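testing teh design pipeline on a random one, pls ignore if ur not involved
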């Protein structure tokens, strides 16, 4: 009888009730992304590779594989990640270190951010983001009640973040470092770390961020062009100017899919970093509002899942996964609209890129598993936010 009960419980855990309110906007965005990647990349792909369908074919394959990853994430109990937090963290750090070893790291656009292992090329910083979220969720749950101590709440997590920063900033990839730092701050705040300690850490980090911004000449030029891109129309301000021109051309309804002008060798990286500008030009304000609405739905469902998670680990994990996606969305859109200096970050589910799409799809799968578990089991949560 006991074996039957255990078997029935296991079967119930693996029979996931898919969260349509989360799944629909994700798949809708992926579908829009496939269409817009083709629209944005066909001319570039035809001229460079002689195949206008190249990026379309790859993105469709990534989307298919990503859907399988999402389904797998739905059916793997999120509690399994708890004992794997440190192994996954160490593995991600090893992968980030391999990027700097000749023969493994692959360079593009002046950065060495990709790792080449046999026939596979991927971006370890995306894997590192997921690993950091799992580690923080595990650590915050394990140390719950002790997080108000600086040596427990701030110090160990800051050390891990510094190691990630050292490995990523030398690629160089300042945008990902900023995302990871903000993500860590948000999760520590949610975990119950004293707000005064978080604010002090933020004050201490500002000079470090300023140093990295002005120490590299290209970052300083990007900062100056961000303040007034029209003073640098043919250099650092070129991308932002053509991105804004794309949005201006789109108007209310857009020029129509495939009829955009800025993607025709004017706007750099139209199918990756600046795909939002192509969407703005070809789908107009209506398309932009639709995209924002889909992302807002993902944010709403992610927060709801985090609030109703079965335990603290699930709550922190859901919060981190949701914040990781939304932060990338905010930064990418802000760059395309000239509200932030130019950074090489993709737009989740829409931009071309296998690693980004797979990690984000995996994140959604884990989110849905957390949500399904909260509906099928009792809550075991203990929070400690007193004394902030």
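output:
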């Amino acid at each position: 009888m006991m074996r039957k009960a255990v078997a029935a419980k296991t079967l119930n855990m693996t029979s996931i009730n898919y969260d349509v309110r989360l799944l629909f906007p994700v798949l809708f965005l992926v579908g829009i992304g496939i269409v817009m990647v083709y629209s944005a990349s066909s001319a570039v792909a035809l001229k460079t590779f002689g195949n206008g369908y190249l990026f379309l074919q790859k993105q469709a394959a990534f989307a298919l594989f990503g859907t399988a990853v999402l389904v797998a994430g739905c059916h793997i109990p999120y509690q399994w990640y708890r004992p794997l937090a440190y192994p996954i963290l160490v593995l991600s750090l090893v992968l980030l270190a391999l990027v700097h070893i000749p023969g493994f790291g692959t360079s593009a656009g002046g950065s060495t951010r990709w790792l080449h292992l046999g026939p596979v090329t991927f971006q370890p910083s995306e894997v590192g983001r997921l690993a950091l979220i799992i580690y923080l969720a595990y650590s915050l749950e394990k140390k719950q009640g002790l997080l108000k101590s600086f040596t427990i709440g701030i110090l160990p997590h800051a050390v891990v973040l510094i190691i990630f920063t050292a490995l990523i900033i030398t690629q160089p990839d300042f945008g990902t470092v900023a995302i990871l730092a903000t993500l860590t701050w948000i999760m520590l705040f949610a975990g119950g770390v004293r707000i005064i300690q978080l604010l002090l850490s933020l004050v201490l980090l500002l000079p470090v961020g300023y140093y990295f911004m002005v120490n590299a000449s290209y970052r300083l030029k990007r900062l100056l062009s961000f303040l007034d891109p029209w003073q640098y129309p043919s250099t650092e301000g070129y991308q932002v100017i053509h991105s804004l021109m794309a949005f201006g051309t789109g108007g209310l309804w857009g020029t129509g899919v495939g009829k955009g002008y800025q993607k025709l060798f004017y706007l750099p990286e139209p199918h990756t970093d600046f795909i939002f500008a192509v969407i703005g030009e070809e789908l107009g304000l209506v398309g932009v509002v639709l995209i924002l609405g889909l992302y807002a739905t993902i944010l709403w469902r992610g927060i709801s899942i985090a609030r109703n998670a079965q335990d603290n680990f699930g709550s922190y994990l859901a919060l981190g996964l949701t914040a990781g996606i939304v932060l990338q969305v905010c930064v990418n859109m802000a760059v395309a609209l000239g509200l932030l200096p130019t950074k090489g970050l993709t737009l989740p589910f829409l931009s071309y890129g296998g690693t980004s799409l797979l990690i984000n799809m995996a994140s959604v799968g884990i989110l849905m598993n957390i949500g399904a578990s909260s509906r099928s089991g009792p809550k075991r949560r203990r929070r400690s936010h007193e004394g902030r």
